[in-house]
Amino acid sequence: MAGVEIEEWAAARPRSQASPKIELRTAALGRGVFATEAVAAGEVLIALAHVFVAAAEQYTIQIDEDRHQAGTGEIDDFLNHCCEPSAALDVERLCFVAVRPLAPGDEITFNYLTSEWDMAEAFTCRCGADRCFGNIRGFRHLSRAQQDSLAPSITPFLRRKRASGLPSAA
Ligand SMILES: [Zn+2]
Questions:
Q1: CATH architecture designation of domain 6-164
Q2: I want to staple 84 with a disulfide (CB 3.0 to 4.6 A). Which of 50, 94, 121, 129 is the partner?
Q3: Which of 97, 101, 96 minimizes the C-alpha distance to 74?
Q4: Are 63 and 157 in contact (CB under 8 A)?
Q5: Ligand 1 centre from 25 Cα, in Å?
Q6: DSSP per-residue codes, 37-76
Q7: Which residues form a coiled coil (predicted)?
Q8: How many CB atoms lie within 10 A of CB 114?
Q9: What is the Å distance from ligand 1's center to 66 Cα?
Q10: What is the pLDDT of residues 87-96, one digit of tens each?
Q11: How many angstroms does the Cα of residue 4 sit away from the middle of ligand 1?
Q12: Residue 32 parent element (H or E)
C-alpha cells in the first residue's frame, strides 16, 4: 500500500490523517515528525483536517488570504520547518507529500516560507541547509531573489501574491 489512500476519504476530513509510515517523536530540541519506514517521493504523508481559521496563528498553515488550516493538536502541528524540506504542501488535496524518497528516521519537514505570507511567530532557522533563509518571518519578508528561488514550490496563494507585487509587463 502506497501510504495513505486519500481518494477513499470523505471530501471533508474532520480530523487529520497520517500515513502509518510516520510518527510523532520527542527529541532534545522538541517534537518532530519522523518516517518509521521507507517512503517514496510523492507519497501522501498527512492529509490535513478541513478545519480553518481566518487569521494566522502559531500552528496554522496558510491556504488563502483569510483562510488558514487550523492548529488542531494533531500530528501536522509538529512538522518542523526546514529550508530544504522533505515534504511539501499539496493545497488542492490539502495534504503533505514527500518531495524525495525518505528512509526510516528521516524527519518530515516543511518550508514554512512556501505557504506563509506573514507569520504570526517569527523564528531563527538553524537547519544548516546551504540556502538557509535564517530569519523565518513569511514570504513577504524575503528579498526578490529569495522569492524567486522559492517560486517553483510556493502555494497558489503565494504565487498570486508574488505576481501582484511584480512590476507590470507594460
Ligand atoms: Zn533554514
A1: Beta Complex (2.170)
A2: 129
A3: 96
A4: yes
A5: 21
A6: S-B-TT-EEEEPPS-EESS--TT-EEEETTEEEPP-SSGG
A7: none
A8: 18
A9: 26
A10: 999 999 999 9
A11: 28
A12: strand 30-35
